[in-house]
Please model this.
Amino acid sequence: MNSGWMTEVLAVLRKEARVDVRDLGSLLTVALFSGVTIFAISVASFNQQLKGGIAAGLLWVALLFAAVIGQPRRFLTEEDQGTSDLLRLLARPHAIFWGKCLMGILEMAVTAVAMTLFFFLLTSATLKDPGLYALGLTGSVLALVGATSISGALAASARNRSTLAAAVALPLLVPIIFFGIASLRTSLGEGLPENAWPAAWGLLGYGIASIITGPWIFSAVWRR
Amino acid sequence: MANLIEAENLGKRYGSRWLFRRVSLSLTAGDFLVIRGANGSGKSTLARGLAHLIELTEGKVRVDGDPRLAIGYAALDMAVYPHLTPVEHLEMAAELRGAGSVDLDRFGLESCRNTRGQGLSTGQRMRLKIAMAVQVNPPVLILDEPGASLDDAGRAVVEEVVRTQRQSGCVVVATNDPREGVEANLEFRLDD
Model:
């Protein structure tokens, strides 16, 4: 008697979705933070031409904070509310990690698309290369979810988990910041495409690699 | 008869203090072991160690196959999800372990089937945890303080679950309550 790995991943995803929808705290925090950030950028740049580099940096900071607020919490909350034992009894590490990652990707994708719409509606920034922007944004979402999931997963069992999650996240996020801003900046009209495309692909590769390998890292600390 | 669970020289140390040491046991179908001991003697820690929930300082616990399917575990201090109902908990547990459906009436959960975890009483949560523990018909059932939060009807549920479990598997109960474990054929005192 056993279930398929995809069934297990979807079971964790469904649990995460139910918890997120019923406990609106995290979703509202991410939405509020992202909305206020874009609004602040639009006020600050009112009647001014927003340069590609600055626009990419601001947009990326908003994405980064949305991920940092939402994703590690998925792992830390299990320990904080005492449900980690129940999850250990029921689920294998890969199902937990990928189920939580999938929910994070869905949440971050919606956030990124909404932020993009509001950003171009409310500011003077212009999109020069939609293909590069789409690839850079997709890579950013995957890489951010992968890196913040790993940091949350690694810190979940520690005593000072919140502090440790932030400390572990830093070295994982620094390379993504460079790649992410490089790709978005060029798509917004500043920088060289020959540097930006490899950066966007690199970001996508980083994201996919971190999500695929995450369960092996997670299983080392999430023992049953 | 084959052993369903074997534990050899188990020990747990916190700092320089050994909570327990050199604990060995092996249980076969029909066995009912009750672990007794004073508060802080390590009953719950031993139960969690047997359930593979924590790493012990020394010793090994062996069961046949994946511990998720071989061991059912329910404890008073284990939380359930505050935003999920008993039905959703059992659905999730079934999907994660390939188990079948559960008769909610057997565990007295029918009346609260759609109440979220945060609205359940401590006794209802314990019944839910026991329902999830036996959902996969595990060969080994470990219950930590199962009756502490239960009324008479709840205790009757636990007694029925233990009786049914002993027909094909074994039971371990960690408790301080003299009313629990009276039918046990094996007893272990941790403060000896």
Summary: The mean pLDDT of chain A is 90.
